[in-house]
Amino acid sequence: MPTDRPAPGPLEEVRVVLNSDDRFHGVDHAVDVTRLNRFLALAGSAYGPLPASADLAPYRTFRDVTRDLVLHPSAATRDAFNRIAARHPVTVEVREESAHLRRAASAGRSAVDRLVGECIATVHDAMVTGDWDRLRECERDDCRWIYYDPSPTQVMRWCSTDPCGNVMKVRAYRARRAAGDAST
Prior knowledge:
47% of the residues lie in helices and 11% in strands. The protein is mainly alpha-helical. Strand 1 (21-22) and strand 2 form a beta hairpin. The longest helix has 22 residues, at 161-182. The termini are far apart.
């Protein structure tokens, strides 16, 4: 994780949640609380540790729907996200230079519900600022890590240069070379 491209501010926490389904290694870190707490700690997340008795089903549902919202926004995905958001009320917090959505009073809410609620507020803020559109999926088929593209032209293709960018460039070189050898 230290080589990937982090998102700014609280959006990084959402990105960490999205990457807890590590498709490169074939590991869903949210299969149990112990594994998820270890993942969140390694990622430097402020969301952990979750209590051992936490029900992770709402976490996984939020993560999977939100990942689809990043990669394949559709009416069905937006509806699914809105159904989740309806269960997590937010309030507006006005600051000196801006206003942000924050989770409504969390008394009686589980730690997972608080985490999901904070993420929903952050998704809203990121959509308003345009940062949401900078979240991308690594183009390396066997990686698929979610990263943040800070470039002015938003044309980054990989979560990191090493290894993903290097692997993809070598694959492209070998394919060109094989095509050249096949034509002779």
